Every structure is written in structure tokens, then in C-alpha cells.
# Entry
Amino acid sequence: MSVHQSSFRLMTFLLLILSMDSMKHKKYSASRSDQNKKSYPASASKSIKEQTEKPWIDKLLQCGYQNYSFTPEERSEGTLLMKMIEWPKPPSSAVPFRKSTNPAHVRFVILKSAKTFYVGDQLQVMLQMYDFEGHPKRYGGDYLQAWIHTPALKAGSAGTVIDHRNGIYRINFKLFWPGKVKVFVSLVHPSEGIQALIRLREERPERVYFQSTFKSEAVSETSACNLCLSQSQPLCNFTDPRTGEPWFCYQPKELPCSARVTHEMGGYQQDLLIGEEEHYFQSNVNIKKPISPKGRNYVIVNPSPTAGRSLGECVPGKPLLSPSGFYFQDKWMSANCNVRSFHSPANVTDCLRGKAVYILGDSTIHQWFEYLTRFARLNMLGLITQSAENNSLINSQFAEDAVNKIKMEYYPHGTPIRIIPILSQDLTFIANKLDDIKDENSTVVAFGIWSHFNSFPVETYIRRLQNIRRSILRLLGRSPDTVVVIKTANVQALPDDVSLYNSDWYSYQLDLVMRKMFEGINVAFVDAWEMTLAHYLPHKTHSEQIIIKNEVDVFLSYVCPL
# Structure
């Protein structure tokens, strides 16, 4: 018997013991952290505040929030959120590459694979990480994604990953449908690679850079801009006066700051990795690398006479479950509520008749606007600009159906949005747009904001969401019938270079923060994270049409419950 086989047998024995005592271990979920379900204490202890609150504020001060005021509750919240997303570290800051996780040496095992499974049962998978030398790892921190799938039924669901912090991981699935259910596990990043991502996020927030054009008569200058901008030369301060969200550009040599005309993304900095870090970001080696099974990679699931789906209508305020749903015949079946199918333009028109719909955020939620306007055949009005990256429409846009009194508006979120040239006056912060919505009936708001914050310290994202949340509460206070829907982050393709700017791990951390911050508020969620992770199509920043249709169906189900 080989050492590898012996280790696996020993591992199986250990894992069965661990599964009985898993509540003693800190948990991490492929769809969200189990810590996300915990309630914050009424107040943090004085010692915790003294040790951790000041650095949270310090990071914001480094990024231009000098003239910002924070309530005691916001200070405490920021501290607790940063604590919530802390990630396990390797025992040494300098782990040789040969000692890092090698998914080619790892095999997952389906526990109790010989038992009879029924719809509604839990399925558990275990695995032990190994390094490139074939030795078992003794610490955690690897980032895994897992899902189950039945190709013949176009059915799929996401799994929950639990890190035991000793090189052993458990993955839980809920079996929602009968048939041959296959298990898929992927290493997104080794723990050592995540430490490099953390370093980049803290030390190199300018690695995605921006610029603005300044013009006055025949004179034109382009200047670098960013949030966390070095004060090596005089700055133009473009901090938003209403939200206090900072933004800076280097002052042009000839023109005044008031001559700013446009905002746009400049590009990506290169040569970011140091030492052995570059080895942790190799496509087909240790980025989104599938992990093979030891033995069967599937179970046969039998129908259950007691498994039923008696769900209520989709109404805001319900907490997100984990898993939040599953696909069956390419239709998303929510675990929270009965999702309607809007199969025809007439279905959409009937739902939106007489409503004002505001869609705010990045290009992933702009796909909703694009889908709805095309599918419902609304008349496009206003400014349309083509994106060089993905040919989607990204500037402020307007659509209407005068007969059915439907008004739909899209606004990209403000800086640090990565966008082709846009007039600086057209940069609209979500919080400001929410405050501008009048007290009117039949108002619907949907927003999504995450990807463009991936390269920045998490503290800046927390502050942006605090502003948005305040505006939502004000909006619901003056117009309680307003429906507010939040699109979560989604998984995406990760070539080695993309990981340094837009890793799923960055998105995952922001998504945990967002879910926690809007917990207990009368808003609804469209769980794009699980809806993209559980689908059989390849991961993409901008999801394919069938996924967008399912996301929009969930969105409209909150607007027009069954």
C-alpha cells in the first residue's frame, strides 16, 4: 500500500471524527461564510476596539477620507466586518512553492457513498490537501468552489465548503432532485496564493489605474486619477460633496482642476508579484483547477415521498438561505420563495405596468437592463455608448413604454468604475441617485456594486455600502412600498493575470460583507453567486443569456409576487 493510499485511509477516519465536532472549527462557505449568519454583539469590547478600530480608520484615511465623519456604530461595524472576513494564514510568510497546494495530488471522497440517498438528504465530501512533494498539508486557507450537477436534467446546485484549518476540508451539498448527481470540486487559489492577493489589495490598490481629460479651449491634458493616490505631487480633489466619497487626480501642469471633462479607466499595472508569488498563479496548475475524485464522483438520488416544496411568495426581508436554490431544467428554483417564469414580453409588461424602475451599478447588473428593454421591447432613449471590453451599453440610459406607463433608467455607479470615457458630470453615486428618487408609488430599485472594488482595500467598500444603506433606509422611510433588490457578486473566469485584479476570492470577500450589511433590512437578494456557480456554463464576468433570464425572473418575482 502506498503512502498516499495510507494517508487517505487515515484521513477518512479522521474526517469522520471531525464531522462530529465540526462546530468547534471556524467555517468558510463556497457561497458565503457561516459566520455571516451570526448576529453582531451589541458592542465590541474596549480592548478589541483599541486594537482593531484604529487601523480600520487609518486605511480609509490613507485613501482620502480625511474629511469624513464616522458614527460610533459605523466604526464598530467596520471593525467587526473586517474581523469577519479574516482569512487563515500559512504558518510561515515564506512558504516555498513546492510546499504549496498541488491540486493534482488531491482527491475528494464522497462519504457514505454506498448508502441510499433521497431528495432532501445531505451529501458530504471530504478532502485532504497535498503539496507538490506529495506530503499532506497541515494548515488551511485554500479557497475552493464546489457544486453538484446532473447534465441530463440541466440541474445544479452550489456546495458549502468548511475549512478545518488543518489541511482537511468538508463540503456539504443538499440533494434537491432525483437521478445521477455528479460532484465537482475546484481549487480556485491555494492558501499561499491568497496571501499574495491580500498583499496586493493592501499594498497596491493603484494596480488598476484611471485617468481624466482636462480641456480648456485648444489646451487638453490627461492626468492620472485614483482613490488611494500618492501625494507625490499636487492633487485635484473631486470628493463627492453629498456622500463624501473621495476621488483624486494629479493636477494638470497648465489647466485648473475645474477643467476636468471625462473619467475613464487607464489600464492595469504589471509586474506585481514578487519572489515565488508568480508560481501561485498558473492557469491549469493552481487557478480554478478541478480536483479529481477518489472512486466514484456521483451518487444516485431517489425521489422522496416526503420531500415537498411549499414555499411562499417572493417578498423582501427574507434572509438568504444556504444553498439559496438550484437549477432544474435550466430554471432556477429558489429555496426562499416561488419564482415565477416570465416567458413572454407580455408577462414582463404586465408586471412592470405603471412602474418606475431604477437599475444602478456595474455592467453585470446592466445586463438586466439590456435584457428587459430588449425582451419587453421598450423604446430606448438617452445616451448609448459601446464598451470596448464586452460591447455592452454602459452609460446612463433610459427606456419607456408610454402606453403601459413603464419607465426604466440605468445609471453606472460612480468612481472607481472601470469604464470607457464618460463625462465626469455623468458619474452618479448610487446613494445620491436613491436620495433623488421622489416619494412616489410603484417604484422599483435594483443595484449591484462589487467588481470594481476588487482591487481596493475592503474598508473602502464597507464605507460605500454604509452610504448606500443609509439612502435605502431614507427611501423606504418616505416610500415604504418601494421594492429594493440587490444583485450579489458572481463568479467569473480567472486566467492567471485576471486573478490579480478580479479574483473570485476578492469578489467572495466583498459579497460576504454586502450580505451581512443588508441583513435584517427590507430588501431582497438575487443570489447571482450561486446562480453562476451552480450552472453548467463556463464562468464569465458577464453571464450568458440563460443565467441572466433566471436572475431577471427572480428579480421580477419580488416586484410581482406569485
Residues 211 and 223 are 5 Å apart (CA to CA). Residues 1-52, 383-393 have pLDDT under 50 and may be disordered.
